[in-house]
C-alpha cells in the first residue's frame, strides 16, 4: 500500500511539472506572437508623418511584362563604319580632325595634294580641245563615204579616232570626279594641284591615321568615321531562351555607369545561327537618339517576352528585411492626449514579381488580404522600416 501511495504521488508530481512546463511554453509562444505583431507596428505623430514626407496610396492593376535579362553592347552595322581614303594617293596638305570629333555630312575633312592631278586635268582639257575637230572630221568623212567619194577605210579611221577621244574624255571625267575635282570648273579654266575630302555622312571620327605632310597611298586609310544614326543594341541570348524572343518586342537597357537609367529599344532582328558558346545574337533598334552612346559600350538589358495585368506598387513602396519583402499598410488614425493625431502602420509580408517602369508586382503572403482595401505607404517606406527596427533594438537593449 505504501508503494502504491508513493507511485501515485510521483505520478502527480510529474503531471504537475508537465502542466507547468506546458503553461510556460504557451505563455512564451503568446508573448512571442505578441512581440512579433508589435515589432511590425509603427506609430507616427502627424508631425513625424509630415516631416518624413510619407505618401499613402493604393495598390493598382498594371500591365507588367515578363522580362528576360541578358547582356550586350552598343554597336553599328558594317555599312555605318566608313573608312576615308584617296583613290590616287597624295600628300596631306590639311587635316584638322581628332578622334571623337563630331562631323556633319559635307564637312571638310582633309586636303590632298598631288602633282599628278595637274596631268589628269591637262589630259581632260586636251581631250575636250580635240573633241570639236575630231567630231567635224568624222561628220565630213561620213558624208563623203555616203556619197561614195571617200574610201571606207578613211571613214572608219576618222570614226575610230573620234570615238576613242570621246571614251577618253568620259574616262578622264570619271577619274577627276573620283579624285574630287570638278570637271565643269576645270573646263572653265580652274586647274588645281589639290583636292578636298568631305564627310560622306554625319557622325563622329573614330580614328585618324595620318598627319600633315605625310604621303598616303591609294590603299591607306586616312580616318574612320562612324554614322551615329545607325547605333543599335546587340544582345547575347542563349539558345534555351531564344524561343521567347520575337521581332517587335520591347527592350529596356542601361549602361554600366548608369544602371538605374533605363533606355528603350525594339527587337528588329533575331539571329538564325547558334555560336560556339550556344548563344544567338539579337539586334534592337533604339527608340530615340542618345547622344552619350558609343559603339562598344557594355549594356545590361531586359527583353519583354510577355505581359499581363497584375497588382503592382511603386518600387520604393517595397522594403527588404531579414531576407523577406514587405510593404507598410496604413492601419488607423486616432487622437492621443492633447488632441495630437497618431497614425499607425503595419509591415505586411509580400512576394515580389517582375518590375517595370518603376512599379513592382506584389502578392500578399496572407491570402485573405483584400488588395482593393489596402492603403499603403508609396513613398518613405524605408523611413518606417528604420524606425520600426530601431525601436525594436532599443527595446531589446533595455531588456538586457
From TrEMBL:
MF (Gene Ontology): transmembrane transporter activity
Stored InterPro entries: Beta-barrel_RND_2, MFP_Cation_Efflux, RND_pump_MFP
A GO BP entry: plasma membrane copper ion transport
One cellular-component annotation, GO: membrane
Domain CusB-like beta-barrel: 233-305
Highest taxon above the source species: Bacteria
Pfam families found in the cross-reference section: Beta-barrel_RND_2
Signal peptide: none
Record flagged with keyword Transport: yes
Record's keyword terms, sorted: Transport
SUPFAM superfamilies: HlyD-like secretion proteins
Family label: Belongs to the membrane fusion protein (MFP) (TC 8.A.1) family.
Protein's UniProt name: Membrane fusion protein, cobalt-zinc-cadmium efflux system
